[in-house]
Amino acid sequence: MSVTERPLTDEALDTLFRQARTPQHWSDRPVTHETVRSLYDLLKLGPTSGNCSPARFVFLETPDSKTRLESALSPGNVEKCREAPLVVVVCHDPLFFEHLPRLNTEAGLRDWFAADVGLSEETAFRNGTLQGAYLIMAARALGLAAAPMSGFDAYAVEDSLLADTGWRANFLVALGYPAEQAPGPRAPRLAFDEACLTL
């Protein structure tokens, strides 16, 4: 039986989905550099179209880096980012296709994307977002909690933190270990018949 044919245990499913919560408060336990490296080494294995791997990640852990972020945040996200041990700016590289010659053996793929700005931007955004979701799941798998956020000025973040990279900011994820507290009730989710079609 292959790995993909073996269901995860209930404990693993609880960790990744059923019992996981977006924390409201964080403990002061730091997220080590080794954990950050392990996090990336997991998330990078998630599939992207043509193995294009356009996501880029900026890990903000120092007070100075978080201060540079604050002016771009909506008011409701300032304290959330300030309190979190680590804030990740999930980005994508519009020039991701420059790496395709070593990521994908298909001939001419780099030139195909380079010649079509609309296609390359759509591909970078879609797959970069997908990799941001892998970040959240990898964090949970490593015992971290994740709080994704979209309340910020992307252009201000790019000017303040990404100017030398050319990367585009997509969304933020606060990461860390949650403060000890009983999780509140889960917010409602749509039922299968409301969100799904079987054709």
TrEMBL record:
Coiled coil: none annotated. GO terms for molecular function: oxidoreductase activity. It comes from the Bacteria. Gene3D superfamilies: NADH Oxidase. Residues 18-177 form the Nitroreductase domain. NCBIfam families: PRK05365.1. This is Nitroreductase family protein. It comes from Kozakia baliensis. The lineage of its organism: Bacteria, Pseudomonadati, Pseudomonadota, Alphaproteobacteria, Acetobacterales.
